[in-house]
Fold:
Amino acid sequence: MLEVHRDTGTRNGGFAADVPISGAIRDWISGTSIPELARTWMLTACQPIPSRWSRPCTASARPSSTRSAGQPAPWSTSSIPTPADTPTTPRLFAHTAWHIRYGVDTEQAIKLLTSGITSHHLAHQIGRAAAEAGIGSGELRTWVADQQIDGWVTAYKANTYEVEDILDYVSKPANPLNELLRGHPVTIPLARVGPGTGDGPVTLTHPGKKPATIRVNRDGNQIAAIPAARHHAVLTLIDSGLDLTHHLEAGQLVTTLAMASL
Structure:
């Protein structure tokens, strides 16, 4: 059982109630949101309460066996020992403690949450999709990047904040302005290059305030896109205010600094 402590922050303090731990943990790792966990499993301890108390109430839950340590429920089991592998003692899955700690059900989601992704909802969805596609943790960053910004919005319903989070996760370190100011061209591999598209001058479309794929255009038509992994680098070029020229060469964007800017 889970011993739930409700602390309302008032003079009257709070009270405790027991919640079945197995069901609560199943919901937690299945991606159920914290407010929904509170509504489902803490009716006695937390209802009726204002919605603003749902998270504190859930976060204060802890197994009665560890109540003296005062650890929150999702974190209190992060140190579960793995039983000896004997014929009579089942062996826990190696990542059991991590699944419970982070509230996800795939190794890929754990990788995302420990690599900078802050959205539990997003990590859960991407992790499940990656697991179903057979994508391991080592391939995860490239696989996510290849879906591009519009893919994240469509497949995972990622909001603006979450898109920025994924962009930070997939972005390749680069400092294109330094290269340009040293007189070197900057070369960026492109995505979605139209078949039969020839080399020549192109222009770039600023994505605007909301994260969106940067389009590569010719004669007013989109002919390619900037990959998500290079989004930040190219946006830095566009926002620099420098006089730049862009060319498509063998499926890559080659950007140079105009002579007037030197």
About this structure: Confidence is low (pLDDT under 50) at residues 1-8, 44-49, 58-85. The radius of gyration is 25 Å. Strands lie at 2-5, 16-19, 62-63, 186-189, 200-205, 215-218, 221-225, 244-249, 252-257. The longest helix spans residues 120-133.
